[in-house]
Amino acid sequence: MRPSRREFVKWLSAGGISVSLSHLAGAANAPFAAHETLPGRGNFNPATKGAGRVDGVAKVTGAKLYASDFRANDLPGWPRTTSHAILVRANDATHVYTGMDLAGLKGALKPSVVVTAADLDRVGTQAPEFYAGDLFCPPGKTPLYLGQPVALLIFETFDSFDQARLALRDGTFVRFGEETGPVMAPDYGSYRFTRVAGPSPEKPDVYSPLQAGWVSPRKLQTTALPVWSSLAKEMPADYAKAAKLGEQIRAELAADDASLLVLDREFETQSVDPMFLEPECGLAWYSGKGGNLELVLGVQSPYEAAESLAFLLAKARAPYKPTQINAQFAHVGGGFGGRDHTPFILYVALAAILFPGKPVRLAHDRYQQFQGGIKRHPIKMRSRIGIDRATGIIKAFAADHVLDGGGQANFSANVATVAATAAIGIYDIPKVDVTTVALHSRGVTAGSMRGYGALQTMTALEALIDEAAGELQLDPIEFRRRNALKQNGRTMTGNPYIVSVRTPEILDKLEKHPIWQQRAQFRQASGDRLVGTGVACVTKDYGAGADCSLGRVELGPDGRIAIFCDHVEMGNGIGTALANRVATHLGAIADEVSIARVDGYDVLGLVTSGDPYTMDQKTQDAAQGNPRWVPRISSATSASVGAHVGTHSSAEAARVIFRFGLWPAALELWRIPKTDARARQWANASWQDGQLTMPGLAPLALPALAATAHARGFVTGAIAHSFSRWAWSRARFALFGEPYRAEIDALAIRRGSGRFERINRSSVKFPPTDNNRIGTAYTSMCGALVRVEIERATGALRIAKAYSVLECGTALVPEVVIGQSQGGFAMGVGYALLETLPPFEGGPGNGEWNLGRYLVARGSDLPLRDLEIEMLKPLTPDEPPKGMAEVVMVPIVPALINAIHDATGHRFRALPVTSSLLKGVLA
Amino acid sequence: MTTLSLTINGRKHGPIDVRDDLSMNDFLREMLGMTGTKFGCGAAQCLSCAIIVDAPDGTSYTSPTCVAPAVNFDGKSIRTVEGHAKDGQLSVLQKAFIEHFAFQCGYCTAGFLGEGQVLLERLSRAPVAREALEQTIADALDGHLCRCTGYIKYHEAVRDVILADSKRYLVATK
């Protein structure tokens, strides 16, 4: 059961446990690997002709793909029988938890094992820092949050499990005693973003987070919210400086200045569930007595999952401490951020550790998924904007955000900063001051979810902008155009975007669209049916500031291509995007694409240390002296990085194969000597219908080139690692006597049919650590128009027509981009009009929520025949792909709010705007 | 316990003893290992668990499996996503779903596929007018939830299959 040398990838030194992120020994042909490698050698691949996804056939035939599809008897070498576990969660967080009453489970329904906090003490587990707190609430304590786990019940047979879960459905067996009120805990993070621009765009900023760093106020334990004043006692000097300037901005907004239109508005957003269709699930088997722990999981962050599991058990006592952890990762049935850094996997592992010798499956049902799954942050916002009445130019903006982070920290601090730095949207505003705090509460934990804070703050902003345009009697699109940030303009943190800024083009598209042109013609502000039109334009960062990917590309002697990548397929089409991007270098679509693979790159021998977000330059400079060191080895498939980052390393690996494999093979077949000038003109070659073409030379088919490359020992495989901190790492490698520079930091190559060999970089330039002061440098723009019809009597709203226009650089799979845009639109509509989860006792933490009560947009809620999506063409043929998975859901939300105002005259300042609320204001 | 016999994708299963409260979804997924039929909500709200039931009169309908006891299917003939392709050949609708990039994560695909197939078969028996087609498709698919796609490509795929064989599915226009 030990991984073979070839499959061995990365061992984490975690208290003596070997962690293999690899497949089991001999797994190359095992069912799991075969299922997860699509479409599979020799199988029909719809992507070959651009007529489908690489996972297309598997998904329409019901192939086992998802973690929830696998049982022990699907996995080679595992015992044949699967046991089942129930994760019991607290449905009260204001009373002392006293234990469970399992007397109702009699006979065969009795669990074989009950795992509680006391068992974890006995085992010696430790909670990873990211999930700090009690993994199980012990009796005698008040749960930290609603939905906090209290126990695992493990049943040897499915029938016992199945009947027990029905018997326990109402949750009353979880008992509570004395009322204590909720547990109070410190906030998860508070920040202040202040920027004062120089006297002109060319001049340096007076103050910016880029110059001065990000600042936080000192925590004052006696107050519920941070004290933001610069005059408060013992504030850090860096904070006081920002706060002093920030308060000057606020004073200007508060001054009695007739030349300035000042709007001071509040806006509130709700908690929602990612509602991915496959509830979280996992399968694990611990052989016992210090043997292996094997897992099958479905997450967006496989590497983090494995690290967390290693930490969890690093100090476990015998016989609970496994020698080795082997984690295998499956396709994901939807993610939307909710499977990024999820603690669920820890409980999958614990179930197996505490029931050794038996494979155990832990699967949420939908009630449990609502009760325990990661949620979107509700945010309360107060925004003030000052606009010069004469010019319609925004002069200043100030806002205060309060996020409810729920029970565990998770990504709350990060979401708060992304929300804050997104608060001025597409606009160029010279004076900005935004405070933000993410609070602990007894609510269900909030974390990463599509839109990641920017959805909330840009919705509030775009509603505010619409109102301001109305007050100024300016056309809303013209008002936006006057204030839109231009290419090279500075964002709130003081840096410019380093990618295209196409806001003007998008605003032009919006302005010329018939929905906008005909708004007056269709508008009805009286009568039984009200009609209104709304517009919004936003920008959304992509990338998380420390993103990386691993890619391995292999070319067979027959020209067949195989790709392995560490990023995860959760519907985003990354498998097909990888195939297409690699095909631009190798001329053909891969017939094997294996995603969520964190094995297969061991030859790189990567090592890492420190935190890529907080390390200083000196530390990074010292560390990079080791040619195998990188700031981070693998990151989550999140933050819309699938196209931009997830495919990058594989594309660079393919580039190496072309340059040092296929190109020299072509020269041989063309009989062009190395001394010929044409031998250096590989950039002039191009692929056409699977043939490498060069002006004046005979086209060469890929199989012939591949055969030659193999026969002559040229490069036929490459493995690469890349890292981005708002810029790619760049390194130089000595390859065949010449320096090869690329946007990667680690490389291995295979010659002919030999073994992979590491090529130590001869120099490297990692992005400077000061880039951590950047809010974002990568961004994508999207605009939306919508016309709504509202029945006065019922408040029923129908979306009559809608238009969404986005830019995403080069679309690797245009059909997937359009599909994701349509899906983002639908999710935005649900967020604006339907979806909501109450906080606390009436909310999902009580274990009583499911679909039906929680409304998700169905086809009948959407303008299926009247939604137009336009994707701007890339600026250049080689423009890199931009992340777009999140931005497409954002602008429809404020556009709907603005359309509702246009129709009803009422400006809603909280989400969702349900039909009953509409009916109320129209009564 | 009840003894259950049924036909799945043309193959007879049973007699097999099942608990009276065992859901059809668990019968398929846990007892038979047929995990192509998904579990989404357990409340018949998302229909990712839907299968096709073939009635003796030659008609077919879809049924959720998450809230339906397996014993309800005794003596019945059902089709699941694993049975749509015949002899290794994808069905017309399966091909259309692929070609239209109809799905993303794919977890809802089995349900949409079953519903779309039932619609095609219903229209082949009782064609509708072209002008009623959009609403017919919308009504048929509306019970199914998808969180990734926004539904449009599913609808387009079904529509294109129908329009490509309009003589079969649509009332002839004069």
TrEMBL record, chain A:
What the entry lists under Gene3D superfamilies is as follows:
Aldehyde oxidase/xanthine dehydrogenase, a/b hammerhead, Aldehyde oxidase/xanthine dehydrogenase, molybdopterin binding domain
Entry-linked InterPro entries: Ald_Oxase/Xan_DH_a/b_sf, Ald_Oxase/xanthine_DH-like, AldOxase/xan_DH_MoCoBD1, AldOxase/xan_DH_MoCoBD2, AldOxase/xan_DH_Mopterin-bd_sf, TAT_signal
Chain ranges of the Aldehyde oxidase/xanthine dehydrogenase first molybdopterin binding domain: 253-484
Mind listing the GO molecular function terms for this protein? iron ion binding; oxidoreductase activity
Where on the tree of life does the source sit, at the highest rank? Bacteria
Stretches assigned to the Aldehyde oxidase/xanthine dehydrogenase second molybdopterin binding domain: 515-597, 769-837
Its signal peptide is 1-27
Which SUPFAM superfamilies does UniProt cross-reference here?
CO dehydrogenase molybdoprotein N-domain-like, Molybdenum cofactor-binding domain
Q: Which UniProt keywords apply?
A: Signal
Q: Which Pfam families match?
A: MoCoBD_1, MoCoBD_2
The record, for PANTHER family, names:
ALDEHYDE OXIDOREDUCTASE MOLYBDENUM-BINDING SUBUNIT PAOC (PTHR11908:SF123), XANTHINE DEHYDROGENASE (PTHR11908)
Q: What name goes with this protein?
A: Xanthine dehydrogenase family protein molybdopterin-binding subunit
From TrEMBL, chain B:
The name this protein goes by in its record: (2Fe-2S)-binding protein
Q: Name one GO molecular function term.
A: oxidoreductase activity, acting on the aldehyde or oxo group of donors
Where is the 2Fe-2S ferredoxin-type domain positioned along the sequence?
2-84
Give the source lineage, highest ranks first. Bacteria, Pseudomonadati, Pseudomonadota, Alphaproteobacteria, Hyphomicrobiales
* SUPFAM superfamilies named in the record: 2Fe-2S ferredoxin-like, CO dehydrogenase ISP C-domain like
- Judging by the UniProt lineage, the source's domain of life is Bacteria
Instruction: Tell me the organism.
Output: Bradyrhizobium cytisi
Which InterPro entries did the record assign?
Answer: 2Fe-2S-bd, 2Fe-2S-bd_dom_sf, 2Fe-2S_ferredoxin-like_sf, 2Fe-2S_ferredoxin-type, Aldehyde_Oxdr_Iron-Sulfur, Beta-grasp_dom_sf
